[in-house]
Amino acid sequence: MAISVTGHVPLERVYVWQLPVRLAHWALFFSILTLAATGFYIGHPFIDVPGPARDHFVMGTARVIHLYAAIVFTVSLFVRFYWFLVGNRYARLGELIPVTGKRLRNLFKTMMFYSFLRHDPDDYVGHNALAGATYMVIYMVYLLMIGTGLALYTVYASVHSPFQFFGVLTPLFGGLPVARALHHIGMWVILVFVVGHVYFVLLSSIVEQNGTLGSIFSGYKFMPEDEADKP
Q1: What does the alpha-carbon distance between residue 129 and residue 93 come to, in Å, rounded to a whole number?
Q2: Is the pLDDT of residue 20 over 50?
Q3: What are the percentages of helix, strand and coil residues in the chain, rounded to 5?
Q4: Nearest CA to 21 among 81, 73, 72?
Q5: Range 114-134 burial, b when 16+ CB lie within 10 A, else e
Q6: Which residue ranges form the domains of the chain, and what is each CATH number?
Q7: Which of 95, 167, 193, 196 is the most buried (most CB within 10 A)?
Q8: What is the tens place of the pLDDT at every residue in 155-192?
């Protein structure tokens, strides 16, 4: 459906983000915030309560919330990975890897735009090439966080817990101290990514006026007719 906007070229309404992609996105977002808050508290307890700790169970509560948020995070991530295979063209894995000439040109133009060296953005329906490449890196960080988190959890899991199986991961990370350091660094990398992601989405929405921000709620973006390469 073409939409005429005064002073602009006609725009085409394109369904980009399918419902599973949007749900996984928001589940990851809120679980990351929860994991960061509880993880920071676990590493640096800052809540003082009167009387014996066993009467308040603050640390235990933080650990339980952290565990369940980690489960939501992991399930959401693997739902997104599954959608790499079965989703529409904008959700596919190939959309994130800038290997074609078109994607490489888009990568360069987008980097110029975000560096304020180019005033007009390069229109792209799904993820631009820079965003796609960044997502590939951050997904690797997500997997690192899951692996180190499982290794660390074996310390607190009961002897008969199935989580003890993941103790085999500990040597792969060079021991628990290294796993803890990687987990902590990974948290800050993800938080920096979240801040940058929000900034660039707002920038894109304001400059391009193509519904980028609203698309993660509705699934639709608005693109010039000649750029709306729908599947």
Answers
A1: 12
A2: yes
A3: 65, 5, 30
A4: 81
A5: beeeeeebbebbbbbbbbbbb
A6: 2-45+54-224 (1.20.950.20)
A7: 95
A8: 888 888 888 888 889 899 999 999 999 999 999 999 99
